Amino acid sequence: MKKLSLAACACIFLAGCGLYGTTQYNIRLDAQQADFSRPEDLKMGSTCTFLVLGFIPWPWHKTKTPDTLLGALIQADIHQVVWIDSTYDYKFTYAYSCKNVYGY
Q1: Helix/strand/coil for 98
Q2: What's CA 52's distance to the chain center, in Å?
Q3: Which residues, at least 6 apart from 74, have a Cβ–Cβ distance to it below 8 Å?
Q4: Phi and psi for 73 in degrees, rounded to 5?
Q5: Residue 95 confidence (pLDDT)
Q6: What residues contact 82, with CB distance under 8 A and at least 6 apart?
Q7: What's residue 21's pLDDT?
Q8: Could you list the pLDDT tens digit for every one of the 104 residues in the chain?
Q9: Are 26 and 84 in contact (CB under 8 A)?
Q10: In this structure, are residues 75 and 100 in contact, taking their beta carbons and an 8 Å threshold?
Q11: How many Å apart are CA 50 and CA 25, to the nearest integer?
């Protein structure tokens, strides 16, 4: 019984990697109204977090990106936001979640 309950707990914790990407909110922008007239001048800023088991933020893991999206805008020197998207990099027991912002 103890082995069965430990196996069930392990499955639940590891399922967090799959659940994290589907439960996050998405920021949607209309691509038809975005200004892509100067693609060579387009800048990118991003903020990333490290997630243990795919859904627990780990504050002691420092990434080389700013902590907030506003910090990413300031670091990349973006004054006009064109596009915002999210990327996820899932590993077996951890994940990286990044919010990327593009603009001029």
Answers
A1: strand
A2: 13
A3: 66
A4: -65, -45
A5: 84
A6: 29, 34, 35, 36, 42, 102, 103, 104
A7: 47
A8: 888 887 777 767 666 555 544 444 455 555 666 667 777 888 999 988 888 877 778 777 777 788 888 888 888 998 888 888 888 888 778 888 888 998 88
A9: no
A10: no
A11: 18
89 has which bridge partners? Answer: 96
CA distance 24 to 31: 21
CB of 54 closer than 8 Å to CB of 95 = yes
Place of tokens 């088991």: 53
Q: What are phi and psi of 103, to 5 degrees?
A: 180, -170
What pLDDT shows up at residue 23?
44
Round to whole Å and give the CA distance between 29 and 102: 12
